[in-house]
Design brief:
735 residues; alpha+beta; four-stranded antiparallel beta sheet; 14 strands; Potassium channel; transmembrane; voltage-gated channel
Length: 735
């Protein structure tokens, strides 16, 4: 099993997923060896190389390089060891060394057939002459010298004695260590290996090689000194040459590591000028090596602990800020909790990383992580998949600690939130105290009332435990709704059905009408504008949807019924007396008013403030709705056809009508002093004229007109809430 694992590891490491044939079945992983074409390049990087030319990214050539790395490690250890401790003899090690040299000789031959990367065009060069010229002019000489079997030559020319010169030439095999340097450079860029441990392995390897080489060299000096007892090892072990090979090697390593670490116990020290000179050079080398190791380790440790240091600095700065500004303990706790949670979830969120990715990758990640959550949200039941695919990538995941405010009461709507994990509570402030009016758990959505209705949030939202929340910007959400009109109607219907089921969020003791979400259309609303635009295209269908929605939002929950497929309760009202017609007139939706009138809406039912829909229309700047109401009344009068809803409306018309009377006089200044009068409408024109004469102190009143200067001669056409204007005989003669 371990063999299979090792084989799989070597296969993954050697194969860099670069295929010169452009196979589509290669792994999607990307590593540093991939060719990056220049901007706007038209050259296909998958072009076939010439015959007998090897790609440097070929899997087989990568495996060959890995095999040579193992031989390099062997050469790095055996070369100093043989130089100091072993004489040249025709034994097993002699055979092994020559086999290793043979493999590197084969690599020299292969290098003449390996394409190389041109530094300017960044393309593979597969010309035989250029490859050969480049190799001969660079590393060929060093590779050749490091491969020559100097051990065999020493046996041939020195009569098996092994001269010092041939031993020094054998040390040229250390040139092969450049391959190890290239290996670590690749590993540091390879995402499959931890960068920290790769750097640590490199530093440890450099240290061990330095200790091994220095120990071998120092022993070689002592071994060749004329007086063995005046050496660093002979002073302790006079007959050290009779010691076993293992004891001598361990003693040399002991001296080397003690000197490298500047411990210096004093038991082994230089005894002659040669050893002193080597000790000086070795300690100077140790200064640079120690600085290199300490610098790299410090950099790694600082990088490793930088997040913790930044976190502690943020906590300290936040605490000082809270104390300096004397923040309440609750706000200070929220501030510190937010910083702590941000530190814990930094590796999970990575919003900066997400923002730097292409849109397709961001969409794929968001679809995998958030699509099921958004799809199951109540507000988006029944919408199209295309709508959700546009919506999901725009959401940002955020984490909130317990007892942190997500939305403040009466805060302007800026975002919609979907709760992924955790829970929140809805609270309102009454007399300075928080009163919980509801809760939400995983999968619920909140903040949509303020965003879709264009009103401040009627309640505050605070987490009760650690919560992961998806946040969607208001402008982005509304733009996507605008692009998908059918899904917009579904979303609005879902919102109205939710509000109908909840009965709004009307809270006892809440006196500000703007905080009542059941009146969300009593103000500027994006959805109203969209519905008004759609009315011109498909009036009947849109009116039906609008009335159904209006019934859900304006009717009290106890009085509203499901209006799909049935007649809407167009005259139903809330506790404040708001009807669908009141809302439509106030918003200026003339098509909606026409539809409500056709359904039998009563224009004379006053609200809690005494305003009837007709009076409200008369006060509007745009007279179109008021003219529509008058025309509708005139059409009903001749044929006397009144539907069931109208009969019901007449049943609730009050017996006494209230009208507002005004006096129009020639003297404008005099007319300004005559304030309008609110009176109960009498039963005849004559009585009305008498009352007006008494109220305004003018006995010359001769006629009555409405706001559109139409003369009134029948008391029955006057409706509750009308504004009547009286003309004196002088004004009438002038007219």
């Amino acid at each position: 099993m371990s063999f299979a694992y090792s084989k799989n590891f070597l296969r993954r490491f050697c194969v860099e997923d670069f295929q010169t044939g452009g196979a589509e079945g290669s792994s999607s992983s990307f590593f540093s060896s991939h060719l990056i074409p220049s901007l706007g390049a038209r050259i296909n990087q998958t072009t076939r190389l010439r015959k007998h030319i090897i790609s440097p990214f070929s899997p087989r050539y990568r495996a060959w390089e890995m095999f040579l790395i193992l031989l390099v490690v062997y050469s790095a250890w055996i070369s100093p060891f043989e130089f100091a401790f072993l004489p040249y003899k025709q034994d097993a090690m002699f055979v092994v060394d020559n086999i290793v040299n043979a493999f590197f000789a084969v690599d020299i031959v292969l290098t003449f057939f390996v394409a190389y990367m041109d530094s300017q065009s960044y393309l593979l060069v597969d010309d035989h002459k250029k490859i050969a010229l480049r190799y001969v002019s660079t590393w060929f000489g060093f590779d050749l010298c490091s491969t020559v079997p100097f051990q065999a030559l020493s046996i041939l020319f020195t009569d098996h004695s092994g001269g010092l010169g041939f031993k020094l030439l054998s040390m040229l095999r250390l040139w092969r260590l450049r391959r190890v340097s290239s290996l670590f450079a690749r590993l540091e860029k390879d995402t499959r290996f931890n960068y920290f441990w790769t750097r640590c392995t490199k530093l440890v390897s450099v240290t061990l090689f330095a200790v091994h080489t220095a120990g071998c060299f120092n022993y070689m000096i002592a071994d060749r000194y004329p007086d063995p007892q005046k050496t660093w090892i002979g002073a302790v072990y006079p007959d050290f040459k009779r010691l076993s090979l293992w004891d001598r090697y361990i003693t040399a390593m002991y001296w080397s590591i003690v000197t490298l670490t500047t411990t210096g116990y004093g038991d082994l020290h230089a005894e002659n000028p040669r050893e002193m000179l080597f000790g000086v050079c070795y300690m100077l080398f140790n200064l640079g090596l120690t600085a290199y190791i300490i610098g790299n380790m410090t950099n790694l440790v600082v990088h490793w602990t930088s997040r913790t240091r930044t976190f502690r600095d943020s906590i300290r700065a936040a605490s000082e800020f809270a104390k300096r500004n004397q923040l309440p303990p609750r706000i200070e706790d929220q501030l510190l909790s937010h910083i702590c949670l941000k530190f814990k979830t930094e590796g999970l969120k990575q919003q900066e990383t997400m923002n730097g990715l292409p849109k397709a990758i961001r969409s794929s990640i968001a679809h995998y992580l958030f699509y099921p959550v958004v799809q199951n949200a109540r507000l988006f039941h029944g919408v199209s998949q295309e709508f959700l695919l546009q919506l999901v990538p725009e959401m940002e995941a955020e984490y909130y600690p317990p007892r942190e405010d997500v939305i403040l009461q009466n805060e302007a709507p800026t975002d919609v939130y979907i709760l992924v994990t955790g829970s929140v509570k809805f609270a309102v402030k009454i007399n300075g105290q928080d009163h919980v009016v509801g809760k939400a758990s995983a999968g619920d959505i909140f903040g949509e009332v303020g965003v879709l209705c264009g009103k401040p949030h009627p309640f505050g939202v605070r987490t009760t435990e650690v919560a992961q929340i998806l946040r969607l910007n208001r402008s982005t959400f509304l733009n996507i709704l605008h692009a998908y009109s059918e899904d917009e109607r579904v979303v609005m219907n879902n919102l109205f059905m939710k509000m109908k089921a909840c009965g709004g969020f009307n809270v006892e003791g809440q006196h500000d009408p703007s905080l009542n979400t059941t009146r969300c259309f009593d103000g500027d609303s994006y959805s109203h504008t969209r519905y008004q635009d759609n009315f011109h295209n498909e009036a009947v269908k849109q009116h039906t949807v609008y009335i159904e929605n209006s019934s859900c939002t304006t009717a009290h929950p106890k009085e509203s019924n499901d209006t799909k497929g049935s007649k809407a309760e167009v005259d139903s009202s809330t506790e404040e007396g708001q009807t669908s017609l009141n809302v439509a007139i106030r918003q200026g939706h003339i098509e909606t008013v026409r539809f409500l009138l056709e359904r039998g809406a009563n224009v004379n039912i006053p609200d809690a403030r005494g305003w009837t829909p007709k009076a409200l229309a008369e006060m509007q700047t745009d007279r179109g709705i008021y003219d529509l109401i008058l025309n509708y009344e005139n059409k009903k009068k001749p044929d006397g056809s009144i539907n069931d809803a109208a009969n019901h409306a007449q049943a609730v018309i009050p017996e006494k009508k209230r009208v507002t009377i005004h006096i129009k006089c020639e003297n404008s200044k005099h007319s300004e002093k005559k304030l309008p009068k609110l009176i109960v409408l009498p039963h005849s024109i004559e009585d009305l004229l008498k009352i007006a004469g008494k109220k305004f102190g003018d006995g010359s009143i001769a006629s009555i007109v409405n706001a559109e200067n139409a003369e009134i001669d029948d008391i029955s056409v006057v409706r509750d809430g009308d504004h009547l204007f009286f003309l004196s005989s002088q004004s009438k003669d002038q007219a």
